[in-house]
Amino acid sequence: MIQQFQNRNNNTGTNRNRKLVPEAKQALDQMKFEIAGQLGINLQQGYNGNISAKDAGRIGGNMVKKMIEQQQRQMAGQQ
């Protein structure tokens, strides 16, 4: 049973961070840079391996928070 679970969730050779809506890539990148700027984190185009995991998590967490807020507004009819 455990082996079946591991096989089902092991996407060897695939990118698990793929965009579900590829057309949103530009908007997500823009949001990422805006939030990083608000947090005082200097991001550059391309690879940003120089930032700490803590800062990367702060950026991602704030992106999720903002997307949830936007979706809640949309669901409430308040765009």
TrEMBL record:
Superkingdom per UniProt: Bacteria
Gene3D superfamilies: Small, acid-soluble spore protein, alpha/beta type-like
GO molecular function: double-stranded DNA binding
Annotated region described as Disordered, given as residue ranges: 1-20
Keywords: Sporulation
Gene Ontology terms describing biological process: DNA topological change; sporulation resulting in formation of a cellular spore
Function: SASP are bound to spore DNA. They are double-stranded DNA-binding proteins that cause DNA to change to an a-like conformation. They protect the DNA backbone from chemical and enzymatic cleavage and are thus involved in dormant spore's high resistance to UV light.
PANTHER family: SMALL, ACID-SOLUBLE SPORE PROTEIN A (PTHR36107)
Protein name as catalogued: Small, acid-soluble spore protein, alpha/beta type
